[in-house]
Amino acid sequence: MHKAGKRPLSITVRVVLFVALTISICLFFVQQLLLSSVEHHFIEQDADELAVILHAVEHTLTAGQNGQQQPTQTLAKAVSGHHGVYYQVMDSQNRLVYRNADIDLSLLAANTPASADYNAKAIHNWQLDGKAYRGVFSLFTTADQQYQVIAAIDISFHEHFLQQLQRSLGLILLGSALLTLLAAWLAVHQGLNPLRGLSAQMRDIQTNKLDIRLSPGEVPAELRHMVQSFNLMLDRLEQGFTKLSHFSADIAHELRTPLTNMITQTQVSLSRARSADEYQNLLFSNLEELERLNKMISDMLWLAKSQNGLLTLQKQTLNLADEIQAIFDFFEALAEESGVSLHFSGPVILVQADRTLLRHALTNLLSNALRYTAQSQSITVTTALASPDSITISVENPGPPIPPEHLPYLFERFYRADQSRQRHSEGAGLGLAITKAIVEAHEGQINVESDLESTRFVIRLKIEKLAF
């Protein structure tokens, strides 16, 4: 047993997952950017405040050299109006000169190198007794002494604010993400409504409703091309189904006629005793009908093979003039009996083709021309150079014109333009269909033209070389 394949995700789920991933990444970076910006603002703010404190302390130390007050007294008044700010001054022998709080800042700056700058790059973060500090360790030299100055700010409030901000941003961004995902799901769900409508219309199309067409004007622009392609597919299906229906009716008719003849003749013969000669004539008549049925079935099988690409061409270099002359020799007796003359004109053209199939196609055209050419008339076969890489073979016979509305269907199976042609026809209506299949197997084309004077079948084939 084959393991069932994994069912693919729906378009809605795919889009929502993609949007969720994109939003998560974007919102994560937005959150980090906001937090980083706020933290940087706090660092800049603290750096400015620490710089003010250090400048005040240094100014006090410089002014105190000429004064009569002790450094302790002047440093106590150096900084005012700043809350949560701590500073400490020590001399060159690491003796404490002054500190404004009961916090030994030297413990904070124990492993911190001294800096001469007071900007944000010189600031360090310290931890002491469960509290966070941001500070600067600086050396200051006066005329007769070098001081170690340490200033710090308690940033516990900042950290608490950042934590609160992070939680708030997380909730806001999570809500925004969920709301965006809901909007994306609704947008995709609503956007797929036209597809669901198209699916409902497609389910209503049955073999007896192939004339239904979807309206491109009632769908969004993105689906218009798909609807047009679907309508084209329906056109082809309708044409194929119509041809198949006609073909089934035609083949039933074609098969019924000889079978009816055989049954009727056999019933009449068995109605009373007959002589051996009469029974022999009956068998000959039935044999003719059976041979007709056999040829019809063989032709249909050949057409089926050609349509499925099962034909193998045995190509060889052929002289068209010689091939046409050989066909003329075959029809010479029949043409004389019908009082019809055969004429050929054209240069010596060499083509690569399957001799048997090419003769079969030309024989069908010539047989068809003989069937509808009046006595004392002539059939003309002409070859000509159509382009540097293609030639044409034209089979033309005089006769009544074929109505234009019938010309596109002449190469269909069992098709006859009118009943008068059917009465004179001895074939099954497959000759032109076989001819077209042979020409197309050679990558060629065949067309028919008819006017008041004559009817012309024109074959166009590619050529390998041309000689005169």
TrEMBL record:
What the entry lists under CDD domains is as follows: HAMP, HATPase, HisKA
- Catalytic reaction list: ATP + protein L-histidine = ADP + protein N-phospho-L-histidine
**Which keywords does this chain's UniProt record carry?**
ATP-binding, Cell inner membrane, Cell membrane, Kinase, Membrane, Nucleotide-binding, Phosphoprotein, Transferase, Transmembrane, Transmembrane helix, Two-component regulatory system
Question: Which residue ranges does UniProt annotate as crossing the membrane?
Answer: 12-30
Instruction: Return the PANTHER family for the record.
Output: SENSOR HISTIDINE KINASE CUSS, SENSOR HISTIDINE KINASE YKOH
Q: Which residues form the HAMP domain?
A: 189-242
Pfam families linked = CusS (PF21085), HAMP (PF00672), HATPase_c (PF02518), HisKA (PF00512)
Localization, UniProt = Cell inner membrane
Name this polypeptide is given: Sensor protein
**EC number(s) per entry:** 2.7.13.3
Molecular-function GO term, any one = phosphorelay sensor kinase activity
Give the matching Gene3D superfamilies. 1.10.287.130, 6.10.340.10, Histidine kinase-like ATPase, C-terminal domain (3.30.565.10)
Q: Briefly, what is this protein's role?
A: Member of a two-component regulatory system.
Checking InterPro entries in the record gives: CusS-like_sensor, CztS_silS_copS, HAMP_dom, HATPase_C_sf, HATPase_dom, His_kinase_dom, HisK_dim/P_dom, HisK_dim/P_sf
Q: Which PROSITE patterns match?
A: HAMP, HIS_KIN
Q: Which domain of life is it from?
A: Bacteria
Q: Which residues form the Histidine kinase domain?
A: 250-465
Topology of this chain in the membrane? Multi-pass membrane protein
Q: Name one GO cellular component term.
A: plasma membrane
